[in-house]
């Protein structure tokens, strides 16, 4: 499967894939850069090129999905920006897989705040993408959530989804994929316009 993604430069290249304690572990190439988590934590909101980062991320997710593959653990901590080139890179490939209609009943090691139970794999990626965009424009909410319980994260899920003129139920069906993706794109364009 990783071979199918080799031409997508933004996807980190694995060096080795192994099993450790019945879990998949991927040794990946070294990236001289920072995660979006670290960038948001250590930067003023004004010096982040949100437009380039987020438009690029949307395109990466679409390219991966067009190959019938899902990312599985998309979060601020799993996206890096290279120091020199400023190129976006998606890391932590352990949860990439082929798309089917299987639902994530229990997201074993997903990043809190970026997933929701009972979504198909493809829709789970869109939900994570929506939350990344939401947090990039509202970093203070994310850093507050890092220290709180799941109920409060669930409340923020509703706020984030409503910003995109969607509701949580629309993520339950893969039939809504195009609608959700279009709303994400439209809202992102509006956020970018209002942010400058």
From TrEMBL:
Q: Which Pfam families match?
A: Pkinase
Q: Which PROSITE patterns match?
A: GGDEF (PS50887), PROTEIN_KINASE_DOM (PS50011)
Q: What is this protein called?
A: Protein kinase domain-containing protein
- Gene Ontology MF terms in the entry: ATP binding; protein kinase activity
**Ranges of residues in domain Protein kinase:** 1-196
Q: What range(s) does the GGDEF domain occupy?
A: 159-196
